[in-house]
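Late entry, evening session. Most of the bench is empty. Finally got around to the prediction I had been postponing all week. Sequence below, unchanged from the version circulated by S.P.
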Amino acid sequence: MAQGGKTQGFFNVVGWRLDDNPVPILFIGPSKSNITGVIEPKVDQMLRSSESLWAKTRKGKKYSIFKKLVSGVVLRFAWAGSTTEIKSDSACIVIVDEIDETDPDLNGQGDIISLADARHSAYPDGITIGASTPTIGTVETFIHPETGFEHWQPSDDVESLIWQYWQGGTRHEWAWPCPHCHEFFIPRLKLLWWPAKSTPEGAERDARLICPKCGSQIETQHKDDMNAKGRYVAPGQSVTPDGEVHGDPPESSDATFWVSGLCNFSSKKTFGFLAHAYLRAARKKDPEKVKGVLNAEFGECFKVRGEAPEFETVQALGQRQHYISGQVPSGIITLVAGVDVQKNRLVWVVRGFGESYSSALIDHGELWGETDQPEVWGNLGALLAEEWDGIPISKMAIDSGYRSDEVYTFCRSHRGIAIATKGHDHQNKPYYANLIDVNVRGRLIKNGLQLWHFDSDIMKSWVHSRVDWPEDQPGGWLLPSDIDEDYCRQIIAEQRLLKPAGGSVWIKTAVDNHFLDCEALAYLAVRINGIVKKLPKSAQTMNRPPPDRNRQQNRFSRRSI
């Protein structure tokens, strides 16, 4: 939640350790401007206002914006956009502020927490302390059968990095004692009440918090007292009316804590203020505004409610088929491939297309290896040279948004079949190409490499629309009977939200969405290449034998390369 005292708490940790038990400290903010404009000035003020700390602080050239020497140890500042600054020195304590404002894969080197943990590996008592307002995730609650507390349920459909780390730890939540029945409960948005059909102004006037234990209405005036008596409670723990916590939290090496924005210490953030903010955003029917209120004011994840097929619908496509991975069903005319490039692997699909763009997933997998090295691209070349039931890949579309130079090099080596692509949220045409190779004079080479730009909204929407295609209509989108769960979940890992003002936006609801990207690229490939009418003789029989089991085994072995 915003303005919840997280950053001020960090300052208290910094001041206490530097004064009483000094160790090197690294403070990482989300951006350089945040460090120079917000964090460092407040730390400077803290040092100057404490007689003890200021006496222990070296002045002059040793006192700069990004580095200070206090009690003989270094306090250094860095920001998430510069992995070089983060990795400059080790530190015993690494503090990371606003984790969800950082890139989940900083310069291809992992998330901010992984980089922070590496900074204190040389210290036996080294620790990372992080906090953030959460962002996107589909999370539900559950009632603990023994304690009766309603807790957040761990979920796989979470994009928010801080929430991922929180649910992997002890999962403590801040609990309040009801001023009426004195039983403890965990406050959250669903317990905030206002009269039905209220205007935002009416909700601000009449809002109350409902105790889930006794049903009493709790007014804002009780908040300070409830906070003073509050306790952190994790699943499996109980709290007596006098505040004693019993039981052990889930076993974890990470202690993690969540506090609802309803508990905000600011006198401005009354129950009525929060009800007004939520109702005003909800009435505008703008998902981004609702997301902002849920994240910043309540400290809760925004649950995506967009357009996407259900997981069971995707899974059922394979359950009603009679072919397996590696086989080419009848009616398939041409094969195309889509490849998504990650830091340590290439994710790929091979899809066959027939009349009316009927299609079937033929094969899919991951080629593991650092994608800035040639080995994994050699494996992709071997994949491109394969045939499935005598049919080769006619076009392979590769995303060049990451490792662009490596993608371009591969496409130059497989000109005519492999194409480099770049997706855009929206553009005037579904797809178009422009030349990118230049000569020594800086002029475009007429027969040089082309980069294909495409509208990702169109391509992904086509994939999702075909999942729900009527069985009795041509144009179906098939999956093999042995399709795995991970593939099915990745196909629905993004949802399309329509904006009230027009247009749409795709929002991730799970960490991995690579196979959806691959399928969108496969559709782009067949649109560019067209559907070749003539089949190789070896592929014209309607009753093909099962695929060679040795080749099938090789297909799976590529996933571990």
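Two things to note before I forget:
The longest strand covers residues 359-368.
The chain is about 30% helix and 20% strand.
Will write this up properly tomorrow.
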